[in-house]
C-alpha cells in the first residue's frame, strides 16, 4: 500500500488499522484474508485483478479454490455496501474482479 489513508468515494480506508470509515464516524474493520483482498483491489482500482492473483494474496500456501474466493468476495461486497452503496466489486466471469466507485448519474 502506498499510503496509510486512502479515500474511495465517501469512504476512507486506514490501511495500517484495516478499518473503513464512512459517514464521517462509523467504522468497519477488515482482517485477515478480507483485508489482503481489499488492499490488492485498491492497489489495482478500476483494473481487472485476475483471480489467480487474489488466490496468491489471500491463500498464500493453500491450493486455489473458486468457492473460497467467491465467499470472501461476497463477504467483502456486503461490508462495502454497509459503508457506501456506490463502492462496488465487479466480477468478470473466469477472469477476475475489479473495484470501482459507481458515480450516481442523478448527482451530475
From TrEMBL:
Family annotation (Pfam families): Trans_reg_C
MF annotations from Gene Ontology: DNA binding
Top-level division of the source organism's lineage: Bacteria
Residue ranges of domain OmpR/PhoB-type in the record: 25-99
Keywords: DNA-binding
One GO process term, biological-process aspect: regulation of DNA-templated transcription
SMART domains per record: Trans_reg_C
Keyword Transmembrane appears in the UniProt entry: no
InterPro entries noted in UniProt: OmpR/PhoB-type_DNA-bd, Sig_transdc_resp-reg_C-effctor, WH-like_DNA-bd_sf
Name of this protein: Helix-turn-helix domain-containing protein
Species, as recorded: Chitinophaga silvatica
